[in-house]
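Many introductory courses stop at the sequence. We go one step further.
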Amino acid sequence: MKQHRSIVLILAIAGIVFGIAKTRGEETQSGDWTIRRSDVQGKVEFSLMDSRGGHHFHYSSDWPASEFSGLDFAKPGRQEVHFTIARDAGKFDCEGFLHDGEGAGLFHFLPDAKYPQEMKSLGFEKIDGDKQFAMAIHDVSLKFAREIKNENLQGLDTDKLIAFRIHGVSPEFITGLKSRGMKNLTVDQLVSLRIHGID
């Protein structure tokens, strides 16, 4: 297992060097992905990495195995894989390999051209390429944006919307607090409550 993890790491680092690519005629954000086993039942540890001319990015979190449609994590041995993860903000086109349920490869992010305009119509502006990439990673969907917008919170903007998604500030969480008399909370207070484990 130790040798296998070393191979995965070497391939991931090598992939970063070639992580700048153009796909289907569109400039994409590209980099490397790795998948490892998770201690959480039904999930895998999914990481995305990018290093381009002074720009460094590393994201890692447990994702439901069900999001990786077509991947058989229980299959033994080595298998070449190609999968897509679709989000409202765009999709991640991934290819590489799995070996006994763990692996690595390259990803290309293809942003949805309509997403920034649709978000703007909801009042969430200033969505550049990097921000749209982050919103895809954290699955800031149009449905989530509408539901949070309907809470009529003061000081809500695009960055706070992303923070809500990262820390788990959901419409259900906000409604639950209101039902217990905690009304008129600011967006920063809501994030702070989640950071400190209030549920």
